[in-house]
Amino acid sequence: MSRSPLAYENTTIGLTSASPQRFYEYLNTFGSVTNNYMGTVGWSHDSRDSAIAPTQGSMQNLTLESGLPVTDGLHYYKLTLRDQWFFPTNDSTTLMINLQGGYGSGYGGKPLPFFKNFFVGGVVLVPYAVTTREGWGRSIPPVTRLAVTRCSC
Question: In sequence order, what DSSP letters do the residues of 22-42 get, joined into one string?
């Protein structure tokens, strides 16, 4: 997967009365509309026997994404590691083990935006955000409007 090293992101947020306090804190810190410039660098190693239907080998990706301090936008960084291993079990079946993890934080006195958090199992499978502030297993009420427009250069 190829990813552009520079991107512009415009985010508009509208809240409901059911929105958590930390969403209101986000609006007090950043406002309801943010314009953010992001930079991304990464490293990848791929020893799979096929990119489309691998039966053996491994693939590792390490990515650093950062909100660039060129505006009053979002000042954050995220480091993500993804590691996949493929093992043939017989002529027609392959076992894949996928590990993915990351760390993110704000800088310059700003917090990590809530929509840049990491999620356990993905947003669809396990709808609980893992944050140091909320802890494990807290349900997040829906935000009325979260519109993100991204333009990669």
Answer: HHHHHHHHH-SEEEEEEEEEE
